[in-house]
Amino acid sequence: MPPSLQIGQYAVEPAVVLAPMAGITDVAFRQLCREYGSPTSLYVCEMITARALVERDAKTMEMITFAPTEHPRSLQLYSVDPRNMGEAVRMVASEGLADHIDMNFGCPVPKVTRKGGGAALPYKRRLFGEVVSAAVRAAEPAGIPVTVKFRVGIDDEHTTYLDAGRIAEGEGAKAVALHARTAAQRYSGRADWTRIARLKEAVTTIPVLGNGDIFSAADALRMVSETGCDGVVVGRGCLGRPWLFAELQAAFTGAPLPAGPDLGEVGRILRRHAELLVDFIGEDKGVRDLRKHMAWYLRGFPVGSQLRRGFAMVSTLAELDDLIGKLDHDAPYPAEEAEAPRGRQGSPGRVALPEGWLDDPDDPAVPAGAEVMHSGG
User: Fold this and answer.
1) Which one of 33, 107, 229, 238 is the catalytic residue?
2) Exposed, middle or buried by CB within 10 Å (0-12, 13-18, 19+), for 331?
3) pLDDT digits (tens, 9 = 90+) for 184-219
4) Helices in 299-353 by DSSP H: which ranges?
């Protein structure tokens, strides 16, 4: 039986969540994933910085665009400061900007952790609890459920996920999600799914979602089976593969898995992605933004280097149509290569932290300059 997932008043069926990814999960990509997947799964926007939202930063306000068909509208917020988090959530609630708020405590990027944010913050148990509490209290009057996403910890010597799960549960979060890597791992190596199982044992009154190394529908089913988690969060696995959500929908409902698209169908999907981006930000910016997705869409297909270069430098819809016309539309789906790990992997490394960050996990002080970054990660 597929897991049933309830987040506040929202039934998430099947229990699949599109992870927020900087520069990727804009309104166009979310719509595309939703068109393939279930309209009642969750599709989360790019990370939004609480301070930038409160200050109505123009880029941030553009990033919280939702399509009329998106429901519930899922917004991920980042903050290191309980006051800023509370103010941002009150703004979301009073202006009806979103229906669900996810909180980011999983980002391993040095510019984030260096200020005590992202995956560094759960180490400061009291401060972490205060940030979660501020969001939950501000969201409660509007009936907006708050969920919390985090990593295993800073590194193998400083694991925080069990405490983070219990604290989030105690402060009123409606679900927690674990990316089963440490911040030091970044996106390298393998996610340790046994940690998801341990978190599921520790957090007993709210759903626990698993994230990390889901590159196929079979991976998602295996994660649920091995860990007992209540749902899956899919990130890099859907890069250039929005149809993965159709496969997940089928897998979780017991339907036959749809066949992977041939190259002609991928061309049509690329064109649809372009149309959605153009609707969102105009042809010039939209088609240029699509460039970052090209290598993922074409991965494993027999596309010559000259044609690949053309896709990587495309500037107009007319050019895109011309390039799509040159593809071998009958080239079959390269399943083995397509379902291998994709997206950034990189190498593990030391986590950048504020001076003295590890000295006292119960120090609730907000690090100096913690909130000066902009949205998107």
Assistant:
1) 107
2) middle
3) 998 888 999 999 999 999 999 999 999 999 999 999
4) 305-312, 317-325, 335-338
121 CB neighbour count, 10 Å cutoff: 31
| Residue listed under structure tokens 């719509």 | 31
- CB burial string 238-266: b at 16+ within 10 A, e below: bbbbbbbbbbbbbbbeeeeeeebbbbeeb
Strands 74-78 and 42-49 come out as parallel
Is 223 buried (19+), middle (13-18) or exposed (0-12) by CB count in 10 A? buried
Angle at 168 between CA 39 and CA 6, to 5 degrees: 25
Phi and psi at 233, nearest 5°, equal -115, 120
* Overall average pLDDT of the 268-276 stretch: 98
Report the Cα–Cα distance between both ends of the chain, in Å, rounded.
Answer: 36
Q: pLDDT tens for residues 341-353?
A: 776 666 788 899 9
Who's near 6: CB < 8 A, 6+ residues apart? Answer: 12, 207
Q: How far, in whole angstroms, is CA 22 from its chain's centroid?
A: 8
Q: Are 47 and 107 in contact (CB under 8 A)?
A: yes
CA atoms within 13 A on the CB side of 244: 30
pLDDT, residue 189, reads: 87
The token pair at 339 is 């379902």
Q: State the DSSP code for 174.
A: S
238 an active-site residue? no
Interatomic CA distance for residues 290 and 270, integer angstroms: 8
